[in-house]
Amino acid sequence: MIRTHVLGFPRIGAQRELKRALEAYWRGQIDAGALEECGRALRARHWALQREAGLDCVCVGDFAFYDHVANHIQLFGCEPSRFGFSDADSGLVRTFTMARGVAREIGTGHGACSASGRGALEMSKWFDTNYHYLVPEFGPQTAFRLAAERLLGEVDEALALGHPVKTVLLGPLSFLYLGKSLEEGFERLDLLDSLLPVYRQLLGQLKARGVAWVQLDEPILGLDLPDAWRHAFEPAYHRLQVPGLPVLLATYFSPLAENAHLACRLPVAALHLDLVRGDEDLQSVLQWLPEHRELSLGILDGRNIWRCDLDAALDRLSALRERRGGTLWLAPSCSLLHVPLTLADDEALDAELRPWVAGAVEKLTELELLRSALSGGEAAAKVLPAFDEAREVRARRALSSRVSKKAVAARINALAPDDYRRASPFSVRQRLQRERFNLPLFPTTTIGSFPQTESIRATRAALRRGALSDGDYRSAIRNEIASAVREQEALGLDVLVHGEAERNDMVEYFGGQLEGFAFTANGWVQSYGSRCVKPPILFGDVERPRAMTVEWSRYAQSLTARPVKGMLTGPVTILQWSFVRDDVPRSLCAQQIALAIRDEVGDLEAAGLGMIQIDEPALREGLPLRRAHWRDYLAWATRTFRLSVSGVADSTQIHTHMCYAEFGDILEAITAMDADVITLEASRSGMTLLRDFADFRYPNEIGPGVYDIHSPVVPAQAQVEALVRKAAEVVPARNIWVNPDCGLKTRAWPETRAALSSMVAAARALRQEF
Ligand code: GLN
Ligand code: ZN
């Protein structure tokens, strides 16, 4: 028998209905009843889509008003006591309090007041996706209590609509693992014993409700797990067995590798494998998974938007079918939360590309086509035309002159080792740059963006609407640049920026000007809560038809005698925040983007910009989930960065910037990037991260952020001085720059002026001291 299912479905709605309802509710414009109604309608619509496509069951439990992990915190009654919830607080109030904090205590945003007060729960990236979950907090006092009304209510809704139900839950080990310990040394695993009975109780209630299946997600099986966690799986899953309730264990995002045998041994009815990311596990699983366990094959890519190569998928499935009798399940590799709901009629998407892509709804159709073809007989005959059509589309895509470009391939082939390194070593460059720029000790600068005011946004919107001529738009942006330069000169900053008024987004701005990228009108993917992103689609060989930033940077430089930094986004970050083509390796895409950036760097240099910054904030988040894959990734990521910057003269200063505070793991790679200056987010760690740089003897110049830009709070001069002194204890003072943690686009001008003037004052005072 062949079944089809999905592991989870997008929940934000085709028109981002959930986003709108949430924000209206937070503003007090609609009440809880209206918000609940929006959720109910979305669930019903998404289940109907699944059933109309022909899936055997619908997914229940993947819906969340804010975040599915936060839902589990409530489901298991372990909301942190610091929130002080009372029985009078509704589920919604609790969700949003945990997610957003209590206003007057929010302070510096997510996680800032964690473990005390009622600040929001910390947010963390969901594995290597761009989805962020709320991190559960666990400590010795944590107790669990089943609070399943909401989940059971959703199950009842689906049953009442006549759908067979598969309930989706995060498995107990992943739930604990993904949380954080409130006390140093507290072992979250110690809570497993008290958590399991509550899970079991829930499973019992689900069975009594008449759900057909329960899916327990244990994506941590794809991580390098400590032994204690690995060993906990088997006994835990034995305790979770409920007679008559089949459990499907779902793994995804990364190979099971050494956990494959363990996954095959667990006493569950079915195992799901991610064949896109975990292909290497298949042979071992076929060997080890007992015949009576069903196998679910994640054959469609749940993380990307390309239409499936149905022929290839069918070949694989047919071969597997011969090796394995019993029931086979077909599914996307992971939850479809990570792709847009549909791309079928996207009006902004290039017409040539529209047939090439598949959102969640289109993937449901693909699943059914595969099932029919695999079933043979009449069903298979019926879908032949659809297979023919898919084949033609793929052929058109492969042959499109916009996908493969001879000139790009020739340029890549002609690259030589020298293209990947600066002409001279850092020590030589540093001397030349010092002579050229003659900067004081502790030079001050910013990371690139200045406040994106209402008027800046209105200017860009007017251009998009066609309400502003190109000429008027340019003079408006030039005015913004001129005023940013005046502000910086008045503040006394040493190295200036143009302020990025022309950019809405650091990836879209470049993707929009490069050939090989496409954009959608409605390809929204949830990032966290009501926030969605619309990743560009990298579909073909990349070329830069013309300069992208030179006009603005040159203008800024023309207004001042101080150095202005040209400002670009690096190739790895552009890749990381886009949907990337599946027909060539990621590393090749990165190289192509790097060449485009290299050309821009060259043009900026020729236009008189002596300093150029290439931001790579996403370099760290691109790290593969398995350490075994790090080396390879970091090697091409750093080579790519060097390819973008190595064409310049020794006296041109290359800066880079990274945020998200954890760099200990990738110091070797950061060093290999060989940027003359790196600016980092550092203030929240109180400069402790510099210890790693010092231990590693990081040789180049470094600008550890001296204040948190997520908060409107203005840092005191003394506070900045203290941080720089601390930095100077571990890094030579002559290599230290003074700058904020990150760009200032989310801030307003008054606090920006105040913060930067305390920063400049601190640097000046310290120059007397050192
Ligand atoms: N140059 C960008 C800015 O200042 C950097 C943004 C980032 O690091 N995320 O906004
Ligand atoms: Zn940053």
What would your notes on this structure say?
This protein has 770 residues and is α/β, with parallel strands linked by helices. Helix 1 runs antiparallel to helix 2, helix 22 runs parallel beside helix 23 and helix 23 packs parallel to helix 24 (667-673). Glutamine binds at residues 447-449, 500, 506, 567, 615, 617, 657, 659, 742-743, 745.
Brief sketch in words of this structure:
With 770 residues, the protein is α/β, with parallel strands linked by helices. The protein contains 27 helices and 21 strands. Glutamine binds at residues 447-449, 500, 506, 567, 615, 617, 657, 659, 742-743, 745.
Radius of gyration, CA atoms, in whole angstroms: 27 Å
Binned, the helix content reads 40-55%
Largest sheet properties: 8 strands, parallel
Ranges where pLDDT stays below 50 over 5 or more residues in a row are 104-115
The computed structural class is: alpha/beta
Total beta-strand segments: 21
**Shape call:** globular
**How much of the sequence is in beta strands?**
5-15%
How far from one another are the termini? 76 Å
**How many distinct helices?**
27
Q: Provide mean pLDDT, rounded.
A: 95
List each distinct ligand once: glutamine, zinc ion
How do the strands line up in the largest sheet?
Answer: 1-12-11-10-9-8-6-2
